[in-house]
Design brief:
The chain contains 10 helices and 10 strands. By secondary structure, it is α/β, with parallel strands linked by helices. The structure holds adenosine-5'-triphosphate.
Length: 291
């Protein structure tokens, strides 16, 4: 499939400082992608480069058909319409309710017809599961609900790409799962989703491609393709998992004991001349006899 995001030997910079270099990646339409890495490793800078808040001066980059290194000022707004942005610092406007927050964005992007605006706002609020919160002000919503409204706002112009920087940063684990599940559903409807996160449990629960910012560059990280950690949701699941863990531990102990027994019962094979040396090194076997 054709890549909707492409970087080739790109240098990601903040002011005059190089944050990441030799960055190459290709992301296809409809992919679910995580960006991980330590604090300050360059995740936000990379996302900001993708939506042209930071300029790309060295290397090549293309997003939704726009060439990042040859971008004209007049194209920036059009490129940004291709990206729904869920960033911590793109907060909701506190002086107006949810509906007015969303209406503001639609009007700013050229929507005029009141009926069409109302229908679109109802659609996105429905999508994020908040149709009954349209009249609430941001301070009347929980952190998770506010993040959903931010996501609804990102979806307004039906962008093919969603860029989310730590979208679950300030919300509790269960609400975080619900938000990422929503992002996954959005991805399954054909959009490309990139999430920068420190929460690896999200990756195990909702697998995707993972890229890691490390040592001043970016590489794809395949270690998350290991079997997922199962997180119990109900008391019954917790009991089953505990039982499995206990059985596994019991089996491990049995195996260890039988191996120990074999070691202890094994006939002496050491030639006489080496016996003294072996005896000196066998303190661990003496320990087994205590079992
Ligand atoms: N506006 C700025 N001006 C100069 N340097 C900056 C600016 N913003 C970030 N940096 C620097 O760029 C580097 C990468 O920061 P960035 O925010 O991209 O990292 P990050 O991986 O997103 O970190 P975190 O996990 O904390 O969000 C850091 O060394 C940071 O200090």
């Amino acid at each position: 499939m054709e890549a909707i995001i492409k970087l080739e030997n790109a240098v990601i910079r903040q002011q005059q400082n190089t944050i990441l270099k030799e960055v190459s990646l290709e992301i296809a339409e409809g992919e679910f992608v995580y960006l991980v890495g330590r604090v300050g490793s360059g995740k936000t800078s990379l996302l900001k480069t993708l939506y042209a808040e930071l300029p790309l001066k060295y290397g090549n980059g293309e997003i939704a058909g726009y060439k990042l290194n040859k971008l004209k000022k007049s194209q920036v707004a059009y490129l940004r319409r291709k990206c729904g942005i869920v960033f911590q610092d793109f907060k909701l406007l506190t002086d107006r309710n949810v509906y007015a927050n969303l209406e503001f964005v639609l009007k700013a992007t050229g929507w005029k017809d009141r009926k069409a605006i109302r229908e679109r706002i109802n659609e996105v609020l429905e999508k994020v599961g908040l149709p009954d919160k349209r009249d609430k002000f941001p301070h009347q919503l929980s952190g998770g609900e506010q993040q959903r409204v931010v996501l609804a706002r990102a979806l307004l112009n039906a962008p093919p790409i969603i860029l989310a920087d730590e979208p679950t940063g300030n919300i509790d684990p269960e609400t975080a799962y619900q938000l990422v599940e929503l992002l996954k559903d959005i991805c399954d409807s054909g959009k490309t989703v990139i999430i920068a996160t420190h929460q690896y449990d999200l990756i195990h629960r909702f697998p995707g491609r993972v890229f890691r910012c490390e040592n001043g560059t970016l590489h794809e990280d395949f270690s998350f393709a290991l079997p997922p950690v199962i997180i119990p949701e109900t008391e019954a699941e917790t009991e089953i998992l505990t039982e499995i863990e206990e059985t596994e531990t019991e089996m491990e102990i049995k195996v260890e004991v039988s191996i120990d027994a074999e070691v202890i019962n094994e006939p002496e094979k050491t030639p006489e001349k080496d016996k003294k040396k072996d005896d000196d090194n066998d303190s661990d076997i003496v320990g087994f006899e205590l079992i």
